[in-house]
């Protein structure tokens, strides 16, 4: 398995490095630079891009990623800006990488069921969450290591996805409309859980909370702009026992695409433009699609709230 790294600077100079192992992004990233990673796994190919906000005063990004091509596994992390988010995203991605490497010989994506993959992924993430929660004990809010995460792994002819926070996963099937798979963990959803007692978890593999998705999305569509960026659930939040991510699954076919991204992408690129860029009818090459999405986001930086950006565009082989 090979990962190609390109770092595109202001003068379009390209630095390419061949990497033969799982990859996590460095916390440091220069102003005006977009990092680009191209990964080829057994059943997927992916383009991972990351960019630092032009308003950030230090050479670091609050967003991070994890690439494990031999397992067809990808994840993006968005550290919380009101906390020590850049370090939280770095720790979460690095510790998940370590845990995966320790057990990866036991993970057989081609031969596993979605139920088996779900069990392994949740165990690994529960361990990472517990570690972050322990590290956050006694810390002030601005010192805590807190981050969102959305992750995908191809298992046989299915894609299993795990999500916590407001980073998102989108699914572009062949000949169908773009679908936002994940449901944000925002205050509107938290309010429904408190008032109506709906399940705090959506788990499509286990069959839990699926009936509540439409009601949650309806409430979120009426969300006040004052509640934007108010995330109700994060990695590292609460105690070791406070770990309730969502799990989703989709059947997959060759040529279908998934987009994992932080809100630095979704706040600056509309769903309509995402669909236009992801569609195989308008862009045959998955790398061109990814680059168009990040370029759309870059163009709006001067008009909207500036934020770090990370995304992984994954195409089924």
Automatic annotation (TrEMBL):
Pfam families per UniProt: PP2C_2
Any GO molecular function: protein serine/threonine phosphatase activity
Record-annotated PPM-type phosphatase domain positions: 39-317
PROSITE patterns: PPM_2
SUPFAM superfamilies: PP2C-like (SSF81606)
Source species, domain of life: Bacteria
Coiled-coil region(s): none
Cross-referenced PANTHER family: PROTEIN PHOSPHATASE
Protein name per UniProt: PPM-type phosphatase domain-containing protein
Organism, as annotated: Candidatus Falkowbacteria bacterium CG10_big_fil_rev_8_21_14_0_10_39_11
């Amino acid at each position: 398995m090979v990962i190609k790294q390109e770092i595109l600077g202001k003068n379009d100079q390209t630095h390419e490095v061949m990497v033969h192992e799982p990859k996590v992004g460095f916390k440091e990233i220069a102003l005006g630079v977009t990092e680009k990673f191209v990964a080829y796994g057994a059943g997927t190919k992916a383009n991972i891009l990351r960019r630092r906000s032009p308003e950030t005063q230090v050479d670091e990004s609050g967003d991070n990623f994890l690439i494990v091509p031999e397992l067809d596994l990808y994840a993006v992390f968005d550290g919380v800006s009101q906390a020590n988010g850049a370090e939280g995203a770095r720790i979460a991605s690095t510790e998940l990488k370590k845990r995966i490497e320790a057990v990866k010989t036991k993970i057989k994506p081609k031969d596993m069921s979605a139920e088996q993959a779900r069990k392994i992924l949740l165990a690994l993430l529960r361990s990472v969450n517990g570690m972050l929660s322990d590290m956050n004990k006694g810390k002030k809010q601005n010192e805590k290591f807190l981050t969102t995460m959305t992750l995908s792994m191809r298992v046989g002819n299915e894609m299993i996805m795990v999500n916590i926070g407001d980073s998102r996963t989108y699914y572009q099937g062949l000949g169908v409309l773009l679908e936002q798979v994940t449901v944000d963990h925002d205050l509107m959803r938290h309010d429904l859980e408190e008032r109506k007692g709906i399940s705090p978890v959506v788990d499509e593999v286990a069959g839990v909370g699926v009936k509540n998705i439409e009601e949650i999305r309806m409430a979120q569509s009426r969300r006040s702009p004052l509640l934007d960026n108010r995330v109700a659930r994060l990695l590292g939040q609460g105690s070791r026992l406070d770990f309730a991510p969502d799990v989703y699954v989709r059947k997959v076919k060759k040529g279908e695409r998934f987009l994992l991204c932080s809100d630095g992408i979704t706040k600056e690129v509309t769903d309509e433009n995402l669909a236009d860029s992801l569609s195989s009818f308008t862009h045959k090459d998955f790398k061109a699609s990814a680059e168009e999405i990040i370029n759309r986001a870059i163009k709006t930086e001067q008009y909207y709230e500036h934020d770090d950006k990370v995304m992984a565009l994954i195409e089924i082989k």
